[in-house]
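Input sequence (420 aa), recorded before submission:
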Amino acid sequence: MAFDPALLAGLDDLSPDYQELTGALAYHYESDWEHHLSRFYSEVLLDLQEARLQLPREILSENTDKQERILILKARIQRLEEKRDEYEKELSEIRERLSEYQLKAAQPIAVDDSYGITQDLFDEVAENQPKKLLPIRHSNRDFFLADLVDTVLKDDNVTMEVPVYSLSTKPDLSTFKWVSKDGKRKLEITPSTLGRATMHDKDVLIYVTSQMTEALNRDRSDAKNRVVRFTVHDYLVTTNRHTSGREYQTFEIALRRLSGTRIYTNIETGDIRIKRDFGLIDGWEIVEKSPTDERMIAVEITLSEWLFNAIQAREVLTLDPNYFRIRKPIERKVYEIARKHCGNQAQWKISLSLLHEKSGSRASIYEFHEAMKDIAKFNHLPQYKISLTSATRVADVMVTVYTRDAQRYIKSFIENKKIG
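Predicted structure, token format:
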């Protein structure tokens, strides 16, 4: 199938350089070594045409919704103004009564000596009365209640790039050591008897990080606590899990692995280095059980200072809402690395060998290469597409991450052509 420049019909209002873009796409399509890139451009342009057809309908629908919301808001404002007038009237009456009470209180109290109550006795009793209530010593809860609905998924920057969690689907019982390529960052992880915490165990901390970050954005004072309480059912629903009894058991095992996995690192979070080994969580406990089947209803976990400092310093990134739909641990890790480094760029390149090192995969470079080819083939990562170059040596293979945002990609392409 030859590349059809007619796909760009109607794009003249996007950029005056669309003819140059057409020629560039056709040229690259004829080049065997960039055949996959030309096909990708065609897919991008088809997506863009579909988006242009859909846009007027969405604008009309959005305008209709806005008019309805405006009418609802106006009616609500009118009701609030009526309530305000009622409250102001009631407040005025209360102030008048308060003024009367204050005048009466200022008058001296008549003392009747016939009952043996002298002025001195009255003064003594009044002197011993408490002047005011005791101060509130615990204005806030001593834990953070994760009760927010539809929060944006957040993940901490460090574990998105550094291989803290195991990619294995079997218990990983060996000590893991990692050093960054420049030698500045070091990490040593000792697993629990149940194995090292996995990429799927990490969902617990992504859930808590998302809740706490949103609470901080809303200036909730309880978000300053390392102890977090939440319902297990809400966690299972949010992370796209079943809510059967088996999932509750799996959740408990995940908590045991998270608390049992010990970390020693020189990597700082929130500009603070924790100079001791620590768990991914410092502890956990069940605070409420079902009366019928002993199933966990609510739990409390204590975050490690390492993660807590990162959240408080806002060292987090937003994840795609479909993150919890990614099945394989290696796919989740590749997505995290792409999100951390590619971000909102049109594309980002990395060598296969360096990506292998960043992922922390214990598989050989050849096995990792096959896994990456599968990811590129099935093409179901949220936000990004991946392609690999061909090379005689696996170590020379380059991996390119592309954004799925067609407009951003075309804009970047045109800008790069102008600079070149």
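Checked by second reader. Residues 327-420 form a domain with the Arc Repressor Mutant, subunit A fold (CATH 1.10.10.10).
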